[in-house]
């Protein structure tokens, strides 16, 4: 009997990883250091522990033959291992600002959310919010329609329907559907006049008063939260746009990390400021590992520090100094998923006075070394106005930038001349550059790719 393929692979993984440091498995050492492991652990595990000799021996012991017809069994196992290789890790934050983090193991989660009912309602999706709106009104109509029907039935209104000598509690209420219609008319104050209560009946006025009071309360809560949900300031972030990529270039003899942000509305944000966080793995001196450690990234807009006067698109810069977590970053480090850059922009909406926060993130592969953003500001002499060309918002141009990190550049200033060379720098689209960066070897750091050529008007604007 053959061993199950999944159990074979999982058993091989467990037995290999649990081997003591320095031991040999299949002719290769399998020592593991939890504090100095590889950046791409799944890839490292695949290359270090899962090798053909050990796998074939395990399958042979389990009854698998690697010869003849059974050889395809091994091929299928290896195909499965290849499919399980390290995939690009999802970011903590999406480009639009939504979180990619899942919470598990929270005790009494529903109770905690119900205690914060109003915010829970605001965070619901629109389909559930509309369901609660219609269902809330219907249940209130239905509940009081039953009270009206029972009150009329016990008083004898149903059995004496059409009797001119009988005085009912609710006139012309002959069935339950009449009671439901009367409940809707009472709460919505429509008042068709065909069905109306008798004030001399003892239970009529208290029930009508109770329904109108509960109806006003329900309308205040439900319609109020629907209005607040529509007018939430977080939707303002959809008109705040960030560049698809970030750039690292040399500016004023210092390496700078740059991103671009813009506001497409004519009513701009007030008291706008920006800050960032670099999330990566960190090990303290006591050998405690923080897998998602946040490092502060200070951005400044020109010479305004962290305050952003966002009337036109701005290039936000972070000067890479010895206090920066990017001080030892090299171009080779951008190939791996070693960190994630989160950028937060906050400001006050001019028309409503509410605060809005826009967020985005950049992985290490989305940072372009040796490039800077192209100009988007142009002066139109015909209209006598400054014009912003958002077609070039995500475009970059090659820039002379050292190949070393900021630390080496500070210690050896002469390395500023070890730059990328471009004989004919032209405008380059972000996506084209990103694909080229991933395909280019980290040893050559070649930038002689085929870039998208700008039009003659764009070239003339760049020359100006």
TrEMBL record:
GO molecular function: inward rectifier potassium channel activity
The keyword Ion transport is assigned to this record: yes
Domain Potassium channel inwardly rectifying transmembrane: 94-233
Keyword Membrane: yes
Transmembrane segments: 128-150, 208-228
Keyword entries, A-Z: Ion channel, Ion transport, Membrane, Potassium, Potassium transport, Transmembrane, Transmembrane helix, Transport, Voltage-gated channel
Superkingdom in the source lineage: Eukaryota
Biological process per Gene Ontology, one example term: regulation of monoatomic ion transmembrane transport
GO cellular component, one term: monoatomic ion channel complex
Residue ranges of every copy of the Inward rectifier potassium channel C-terminal domain listed in the record: 240-412
Membrane disposition: Multi-pass membrane protein
Subcellular location, record wording: Membrane
Family that this chain belongs to: Belongs to the inward rectifier-type potassium channel (TC 1.A.2.1) family.
Name this protein carries in UniProt: ATP-sensitive inward rectifier potassium channel 12
Source species of the chain: Biomphalaria pfeifferi
């Amino acid at each position: 009997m053959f061993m199950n393929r999944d159990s074979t692979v999982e058993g091989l993984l467990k037995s290999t990883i649990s081997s003591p440091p320095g031991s040999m498995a299949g002719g290769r050492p399998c020592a593991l250091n939890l504090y100095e492991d590889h950046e791409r652990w799944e890839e490292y595990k695949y290359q270090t522990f899962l090798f053909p000799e050990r796998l074939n021996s395990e399958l042979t012991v389990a009854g698998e033959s690697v010869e003849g017809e059974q050889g395809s069994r091994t091929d299928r196992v290896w195909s499965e291992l290849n499919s399980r290789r390290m995939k690009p890790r999802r970011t903590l934050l999406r480009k639009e600002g939504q979180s990619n983090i899942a919470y598990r193991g929270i005790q009494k989660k529903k109770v905690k959310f119900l205690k914060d009912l109003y915010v829970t309602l605001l965070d619901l999706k629109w389909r559930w919010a509309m369901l609660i709106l219609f269902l809330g009104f219907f249940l209130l109509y239905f509940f009081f329609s039953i009270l009206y029907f029972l009150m009329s039935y016990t008083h004898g209104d149903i059995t004496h329907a059409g009797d001119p000598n009988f005085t009912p509690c609710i006139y012309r209420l002959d069935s339950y559907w009449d009671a439901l219609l009367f409940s809707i008319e009472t709460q919505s104050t429509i008042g068709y006049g065909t069905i109306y209560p008798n004030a001399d009946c003892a239970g009529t006025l208290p029930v009508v008063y109770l329904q109108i009071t509960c109806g006003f309360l329900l309308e205040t809560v439900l319609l109020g939260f629907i209005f607040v949900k529509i007018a939430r300031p977080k939707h303002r972030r959809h008109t705040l746009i960030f560049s698809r990529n970030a750039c690292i270039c040399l500016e004023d003899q210092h390496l700078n990390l740059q991103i671009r942000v813009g506001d497409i509305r004519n009513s701009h944000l007030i008291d706008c400021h920006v800050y960032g966080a670099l999330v990566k793995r960190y090990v303290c001196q006591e050998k405690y590992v923080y897998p998602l450690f946040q490092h502060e990234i200070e951005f400044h807009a020109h010479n305004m520090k962290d305050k952003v006067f966002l009337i036109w698109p701005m290039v936000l810069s972070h000067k890479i100094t010895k206090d920066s977590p990017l001080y030892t970053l090299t171009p080779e480090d951008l190939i791996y998923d070693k960190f994630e850059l989160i950028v937060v922009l906050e400001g006050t909406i001019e028309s409503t006075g509410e605060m809005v926060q826009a967020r985005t993130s950049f992985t290490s592969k989305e940072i372009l070394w040796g490039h800077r953003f192209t100009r988007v500001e142009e002066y139109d002499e015909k209209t006598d106005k400054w014009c912003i060309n958002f077609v070039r918002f995500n475009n970059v141009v090659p820039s002379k930038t050292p190949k070393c990190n900021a630390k080496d550049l500070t210690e050896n200033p002469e390395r500023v001349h070890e730059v990328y060379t471009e004989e004919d720098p032209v405008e380059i689209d972000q996506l084209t550059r990103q694909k080229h960066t991933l395909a280019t070897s980290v040893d050559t750091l070649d930038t002689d790719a085929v870039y998208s050529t700008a039009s003659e008007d764009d070239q003339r604007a760049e020359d100006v």
